[in-house]
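Supplementary Note 3. Input sequence used for the single-chain structure prediction.
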Amino acid sequence: MRTIILTRHTASKVRRIAEDGAILLFTADYGCNDCEEFEEMLPEELSMVIDYKVIVTHEDESVTEALNMGVETIPQIWVGKKKIDHTNIQELLEAFKNEVEPIIQLAKELKTLFNDHAEELKRKYGWNVKVDEKVAIQIAKRMLKYGKAYCPCRVELKYENICPCIHHIDELRKYGKCRCGLFTIQVDIKANI
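The predicted structure, written as discrete structure tokens, is reproduced below.
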């Protein structure tokens, strides 16, 4: 989860990434008890789905930009341009979970397929390959948006960039991981001692 401090300079970026379908958590840095409690309650599975944490500061310009964007209460979550409203943080958590359940479910299915592929890599090359769950979530988001499991680090939406992309074997050989980090070769340090 990346962090953006909401100011008049960053507000247009926040709007743009929301329009692109990013998942945003609006929170405060000035002692908002609900914000702190919500983040403590947030299971890791849901936390990994959030793309950006947008911090509303106590500065007037930050509050003004939040209000201009329609953020009247915090914490608040946007899934793309859809705002998830709540009357309490438990409702917010439940509504958020329901909204992103398709992403989480698809990411689990993709991770299973990617783990199967990692096993194939072990049989074929002897590599002990780990699959990154956060990257699988990003791929699931792209799959829901574009209809295919496009690599999150490749801009062009073409067949060669469907994960596992055609580049991953060469990248694993050269760098020990593929460009997006979905696959990483795990090195047994004890074996090298």
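Residues 140 and 147 are 10 Å apart (CA to CA). The domain at 2-85 is CATH 3.40.30.10 (Glutaredoxin).
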